[in-house]
Amino acid sequence: MLHHHDGSHAHRSGHHPPATGGHRQLGWVLVLTLGFAAVEALGGLWAHSLALLGDAGHMFSDSVALGMAATASWVGRRPPSARHSYGLARAEVVAALLNGLVMLAVVVAIVVEAIRRFRGPQPVAGVPVMVIAGAGLLFNVAAALILSRGERTINVRGALVHVIGDLLGSAGALLSGAVIYFTGWMPIDPLLSLLICALILYSTMRLLREALHVLMEGVPPELDLNGVGQALAHVPGVVSVHDLHIWMLSPGIPALSAHVVMDDLKAWPKVLADMRQLLDRRYQIGHVTLQPEITADLVEVPLPHGAKVYPLKPENTRR
User: Fold this and answer.
1) What pTM, to 2 d.p., does this model score?
2) Domain boundaries, the chain
3) How far is the C-alpha of 194 from the C-alpha of 236, rounded, in Å?
4) CA dihedral of residues 73, 169, 64, 91 (deg, nearest 10)
5) Architecture of domain 23-215 in CATH?
6) CA distance 88 to 80
7) Is the Cβ–Cβ distance between 287 and 257 less than 8 Å?
8) Residue range 182-204, pLDDT digits in tens
């Protein structure tokens, strides 16, 4: 149903900087990951260790994911354009989503390999595995520290999931090598692999859930849509608020749009200033689009079906 809008349209572009970044940290971690993956692959060939070769393949796949993350972080810093008026900050969200999907594929591959090893255990050279896995553990701790000290965007967190996955893989390989060396019990390798998969899966699902929430333009988890609507409706001069929407341009950059019903449009400049101040100070929302309307519009043309209205107390809905 069409809804006639009478009055001015007010928009304030947010002053909050895009929550993109971390490309330098991602670049360093990418170079280090590629370098150690090559070392681990050579060590696996020398020791005839399928576990190390598999972990090297895991790190190479992580390098691809880190490359996507670093590229997205750089792209996300590009300014708005005529083609993308909000900029490309969501490139980081897309990269985080792809990273999560890659990790799911890695988890599936590890589980399949673990099941295969349960059926047919393979000999593993314990000492070379322990030495290389120990070096990998130290490397991944350093990589995690590099990422943790930078901007904690969703993209960097996605890369951190990969690094933590590698860290857990190195720790599991180290423990597996030690158990095999001292006891000769081969099933420890697939058992630890499954445990590591469970831990990686938990972090990956959280990352995917957050990325999808942003892409589906969900309300930021820290904001209450109804609470914001009631707060706006209580601004002096406002009769009611409807068609309220809150979403995220990217994590850390919320945006809001709403229709504001008033008895007198002459009060709009003051109402607009009060609403801007309220949204900025209480909710940290900088991207704001507010459409003023007069009560006569709502009498002539009904609201769209399902539109939620946030009035004051019933006795105060008319001033």
Assistant:
1) 0.70
2) 23-215, 219-316
3) 59
4) -30
5) Up-down Bundle (1.20)
6) 7
7) no
8) 888 878 877 877 877 787 787 78
